[in-house]
Amino acid sequence: MTAISNIPSVGKTPYLLRLFQFIAQPIEYVENYAKLYGDTFYIPGKNDTPIVYFSTPEALQQIFTAAPQQFESGRGNLGLKFLLGVNSLILLDGERHQRQRQLLAPPFHGERMRAYGDIIREITQKISKNWQLNKPFNIRASMQEISLRVILRVVFGLDEGQHLEELRDKITSLLDFMGSPLMSAALFLRFMQTDLGGWSPWGRVLRLKARIDELIDELIQERRAESDQNRQDILSLLISARDANGEGMTNDELRDELMTLLLAGHETTASGLTWAFYWLDMLPDVREKLCGELDTLSDMSDVSAIAKLPYLTAVCQESLRIYPIVMTSFLRILKSPMEITGYKLPAGSLIIPSIYLAHHREEVYPQSKQFKPERFLERQFSPYEYLPFGGGNRRCIGMAFAMYEMKLVLATILSQFQLSLVNKRPVRPVRRGLTLAAPSGMRMIVKSEVKS
To answer: What CATH number does the domain located at 2-449 have?
Structure first.
């Protein structure tokens, strides 16, 4: 049996240097430690509480299949309370977490999810038709506009009107501001989280969030007052959802869960799509193979046929593997001692399943730094080897919808346009708030339109 004292510690690294690298160089942060200390290492936290990183499939399987009662995950995410609200699924544990997952999950699966396919294609066409031949545009901004319009339409049933415009404007402002280097740092530095009025950075964040809450509250009240029982947007479905005791969500619960869906479902998809277009231009052979597969479709409006294309699916999977949008699964706090791959961990230990390190294990993904969609055609990876949406009872409930949206957006655009990077220099991911993203200034041009 290996004791926690025998897990390599990075304690000799000066705290401020560690913090700076964690914020400014998130990939180098974990790669350097893994190179120096191996698969499992720990970082002394406050009061010397061990923060332990795991990335082997064996360790991740033990963590993700352990009884949920073994961990306290919501408390580990309390830093997001200001943004998501106290009722967010991400901040809950135990029976409340299980109840909310059961209420939230149905709209993201089966026929209901597939019914959103036409909406995704329609919005993608609407945004992309504004691109002009040989005129540079910001690819991330376009993907963000598509994903935000999709989530507002699918979640709230909003397609036009002043309510939609203000909500979209406020969410975009909030996310862009929080994705800046200054505010990305503020998420981890408590002294920067000070409200000095609307002119101060943190004050601006809080006021934007308060206005978004007001807009969502108004929509909930309007929808509850409506008599139309046939609406299929997620807000309407959640209002009518009932738990095992026949009870529905309160307005506060609805608002916080809708805010969670808005932020988690919009940012991540936009980043995944941006990376996909980057790789497709950097690797012409991959693009040619994907376009060849799309050419086999006789009807590009057949969303079910698009979603089943194997190489398109593999391109999306590889885009989320090589640079996962969220580098770690949710932090888990041990409520009682636990043994993981031979290491005895005391209660109170903070467990971090590293998605990025799991996705770059050479024995699982040979030449892991190379973009090779064929990996996903040659073998099937376990949920402990490939986990872009986390794992266990904390796995993202919108996983299937996100993959579905990525495939439809990619197919719709590639069937109409050939896009090319303005600058073909290789780029590295940067921190964008809590996520990993392509540099925000990445620009592309429409080189040609695909003849139908």
So the answer is: 1.10.630.10
